Fold this protein.
Amino acid sequence: MILLRLAWRNLWRSPRRTLLTLGAMVFCNTILVFMIGLQLGMYDLMINNTLRAFSGNLQIQATGYNEKPQMRSSFADATQLAQRVRDHINLDSVSARATGFALASSQTRSYGVQVLGVQPATEALVSTLPGLIKQGSYLSPDDAQTAVVGSVFARNIKVDIGDELTLVGSGKDGSIAATVVTVVGIFDSGISELDRNLLQMPLTVFQDVFSLGNDAHKIVISAANLDAAVKVESEISALIADHPDLTLLDWQTLNPGLQEAIQADFSSAWFMYGVLIVLVGFSVLNTVLMSVLERTREFGIVLALGLTPGRVGWVVMLESLLMGLAGFSIGAATGAVLNMYFAINGFSYSGMQEMGARFNLPAEFYPEVSLIALTLGPGAILIATLLAAIYPALRIRGLQPVEAMRAV
């Protein structure tokens, strides 16, 4: 306790220097809390909107379909099972899909395309694509031989609203799957892979054309957020427990590249954060070292009186610890206030609204207010502060009392 009181008093022997160093720590801590919170909030937004664009948070599939998608890897009574899931978890955003491939031909060109059979009444609840129709309209529940296509595909194959496409593929039983559909809508998702290669048609038409009967390949479940998806995952698993041929996949399994991209981006961001942390560390090193040099004669006296170099070094370490804890507390608190403000009001910048409208995304980011967002950055600076104090503390161990007392 005596050493603690002594360390605290020593900090304020030079108030200006201590306040400048503390101010730098608080500023950097606040910036780190806000930037990390904003980054985590952007990741949540990116994950949710990527999942909402196409895959959903969870999918029920035939076992092995995700590893090797094949037309014959379907399961029966898909729409009935989708309704059971919808009723069981009390969530409307559940929709069945079937997937195939076909050669699409217009009057002038032919291209291969992925054909997706969807339930028009519920697809808009699990995907943002129905809200990205730029020309025409989306599929209606009573649509028959109609389709919506991506903007790049429409441009490549030279079709417009009202034009017909001939589709030729292979059915589940090996028969020729052929039909003619009318383009009623063109979507522009901003995702080139979807805009170039995707065609959607009503699920009932798909099942008839591709000889699926009442089968489908997946049931897509879209939750409000990742936490909500975790809550319903166990309920859905229990519901399909008596179907050994079915499996429930989470978003990490469905989108392995998304998690890897987030980890890579977070790691690269720490290069910039590391620069701030190193700068603060050198600032603390300068403050503590100057403090030790100014008190060399004083340290010589206490060493001559019998105080061990180790205890004197602990005083220096405690000074850094106290300053680091003060910077941690104040910086985390101001960062929390800043994050909470933007978590309520949203954070935006010039051009964000136009970009959000372009990709059917919100116009603001909302920083995450969590323990990891509030403590990760300030914790790193606290560690840097303690590391910076090691050299000045070790320097005391090499002092000779007589020589130290002669220092000016």
User: Anything to note?
Assistant: The first strand starts at residue 58 and ends at 62. The mean pLDDT is 86. The chain has two domains: 2-51+258-405, 58-249. The radius of gyration is 31 Å.
